[in-house]
Amino acid sequence: MYNGCMLWLEKKYLSMVVSSLDMAKWKGDTTLNHRCLYCGDSSKNEFKARGYHFVIDQSYIYKCHNCGKSTSSIHFIKDHFPMIHKEYMREWLKEQGVKTRPQKMPSSNEFKFTPKKDIINKSNIMTVDNLKFLMKPCSEVPEAREYLQKREIPEVHYKDLWFTKTPQSLSMLSEKYKDRVLGNDPRIIIPFFSEDNQLIGLSGRAINDSPLRYMTMKFHDDVPLIFNLHKVDKSKTIYVTEGPLDSLFLPNAISVAGSDFSKIGDLKENAILVYDNEPRNTEILKKIDSVIASGFRVCVWNDRRVNDLKDINEMILNGLTSEEIVSIIDDCAFGGLSAKAKFMEYKKV
Ligand SMILES: [Zn+2]
Fold this sequence. Notes:
Blueprint: H1 7-17, E1 25-27, E2 31-34, E3 51-56, E4 59-64, E5 70-72, H2 73-80, H3 82-95, E6 136-137, H4 142-150, E7 162-164, E8 187-193, E9 199-206, E10 214-218, E11 238-241, H5 244-247, E12 253-255, E13 271-274, H6 282-293, E14 297-299, H7 312-317, H8 322-332, E15 333-334, H9 336-346
Parallel strand pairs: 11-12, 11-13, 13-14
Antiparallel strand pairs: 1-2, 2-3, 3-4, 4-5, 6-7, 7-8, 8-9, 9-10, 14-15
Helix pairs in contact: 1-3, 2-3, 6-9
Zinc ion is lined by residues 36, 38-39, 41, 51, 64, 66-67, 69.
């Protein structure tokens, strides 16, 4: 069956319902904004309009920033304007070259129409599953797989990392980012979940040579972004790395996605902080000094096998195994006065 881009047709039918939508406005060529028909938008403020139609992957998508409803725009039309939806289906079928009897929908036996899988966001909680219209798991995208393979990231993680060619479309995920420029560099998207499994942020690693290597989105200002926090066993040793991708090489590991380790204060007892191995980087040295002072255990790299290898990924690429790296970290983990002493020997400036 012919399956070309039907964007123009979707837009035509959206335009047909515009006059029936409260506060409807086209914003630019491809974004339509109006009061949400699913939630009524706001009972207090009749000027709130938080429903948006926008284009992703050659198709119109609907998303409400109030109730979180997200679905295809065609399904939106079906829900609220069933007669117009029937018209749409007729025209759509005609475009696909399917013959229809006049004024009558063909029975389902005559053709197979597979609508875009619906993305229903029941509880206003974003999960990776209902974001499938924005991103794909890296396991399913050849260029993403290739990037991860080059970095020798264990394949078990590919399905939990996401990929998009159009990060700009992610701006629709949150009111906070709706006017933000996120660009269109292809990126591996690393999702952050809270302990109760809510998606609280994203970090996108460019896989081209974009000068903006990382792009971070944080959906809740009061919840710190800690990668893999929802999966670790807090009763065991937790390895804490700077970069999320580095943490994927270690067991029971999290990442602070940066170098601010103060946000894992309540995990202090079982945590070993693993900074990049950069004994000449004064910024990092300052931070190591300060976390030692606040009572954390830190890996003070001291093993000939990792000399001049600046992070865990580089150690892997140089032939060390995860097991070897874990045993080096365990041997180099110190707290308190011994950490201070080891640190004095370590730093090269
Ligand atoms: Zn709504």
